[in-house]
Specification:
single chain, about 325 residues, alpha/beta, Rossmann fold, Alpha-Beta Plaits, six-stranded mixed sheet, about 30% strand, globular, binds adenosine-5'-triphosphate, binds magnesium ion
């Protein structure tokens, strides 16, 4: 079955290495058009293996792959030319400069000079490499190398970008500028972007959709909002300054509040259901009125993608456990 609205579509995609290691296990992936799709999972989850199969660089043990509506095969060179691929920790010829390297890659793609030169100029500018355009790549920081890599993936104006851990090893400044560059490519340049990462904050900032892989299996796929909704924990965290006792007593009296915990300046308030969340909030904030305790900040429990991710992994583990138990009954 094909799916014309998907940029990447896999069915039952499986990779078993050396007949024993199941790196990717029965993966059904649908990457919607015009999305920035985050492929998230811990080390060894199967992200790179999946990416290499999507690119046709390694052969699946089972299953099918469609990219941009076409079946991906070992000999799909033409299809691969429509994809820009940035591997994890890319290496470039150290003696080259961004200009000479991009020119070299452009020539490999057979892009004529009259198109190649203006495109290189534009890419150097849009990836923020202008001040470094004539410096040797060997002097570059990891973040700058990532920018050269992203510029190179764009040289043939691909419809789809596949970036394997583009923010790995970057400091906060390098990470922010890379994140912004990817958002710009997805939002303003209309590129479809598929990126892998195990850094939740980056996925949260960059992506519209997410697929979570663990131990070779896709345990969740949907929009970022959906993953957060799934674990709506109905909690509010209040950071306070002062003695917490009177506030805690007052919070416990609010209808719909089911539990109140305190741990080092943070009061965590649990509300009985999602529906009562909005009603309970004003009452929760109201307890600080006429009280010497000061409310410094607050956070909704549903905001944190990290806890969503961990919860999904935990659920997967306990489901697996349950499956194992029921099997033995
Ligand atoms: N060529 C190979 N031969 C045997 N096992 C492999 C091979 N390549 C990967 N694996 C194994 O398959 C699993 C998935 O590896 P993969 O590189 O796809 O994970 P990943 O999610 O990209 O991890 P990371 O976040 O560390 O990059 C791992 O257990 C890995 O050891
Ligand atoms: Mg990897």
């Amino acid at each position: 079955m094909s799916n014309i609205d998907s940029i990447i579509h896999t069915e039952a995609l499986t990779k078993i290495f050396s007949r024993k290691k199941i790196a990717v296990n029965d993966l059904y992936l649908d990457v919607p058009k015009n999305s920035i799709y985050g492929f998230m999972g811990p080390n060894g989850a199967g992200k790179t293996t999946t990416i290499k199969m999507i690119l046709g660089l390694i052969q699946p043990s089972a299953g099918t792959i469609q990219v941009l509506g076409e079946k991906m095969r070992k000999d799909s060179a033409k299809l691969r030319r429509q994809i820009g691929y940035l591997p994890t920790n890319p290496k470039f010829p150290e003696k080259m400069t961004p200009i000479t390297y991009l020119d070299f890659v452009g020539k490999i793609f057979g892009i004529p000079k009259q198109i190649r030169i203006p495109r290189i100029t534009e890419l150097i500018r849009s990836t923020g490499l202008l001040p470094l355009s004539s410096s040797e790549i060997k002097k570059f920081s990891t973040g700058e190398i990532t920018r050269v890599g992203i510029a190179a993936t764009l040289i043939n104006d691909p419809k789809l970008l596949i970036l394997d851990e583009p923010t790995l090893g970057l400091d906060p400044i390098g990470r922010t500028s890379t994140v912004n560059l990817i958002i710009e490519l997805g939002n303003n340049r209309g590129k479809n972007v598929f990126l892998s990462s195990h850094i939740l904050g980056d996925i949260d900032r960059i992506c519209t959709h997410v697929g979570i892989i663990n131990d070779g299996k896709l345990i969740f796929t949907g929009t970022i909002a959906e993953v957060k909704k799934l674990i709506h924990t109905n909690t509010v965290e209040l950071q306070i300054d002062g003695e917490p006792d009177s506030i805690i007593q007052k919070l416990k009296l609010i209808p719909n509040v089911i539990n109140v915990d305190f741990d080092r300046y943070i009061i965590r308030v649990g509300i009985d259901s999602k529906e009562n969340y909005a009603n309970a909030l004003p009452q929760i904030f109201g307890v600080f009125k006429n009280d010497p305790v000061e409310l410094i900040s607050f956070k909704s429990g549903s905001e944190n993608l990290e806890s969503a991710f961990l919860k999904l992994l935990e659920d997967e583990k306990s489901n697996g456990f349950l499956r194992a138990i029921t099997k033995n009954l």
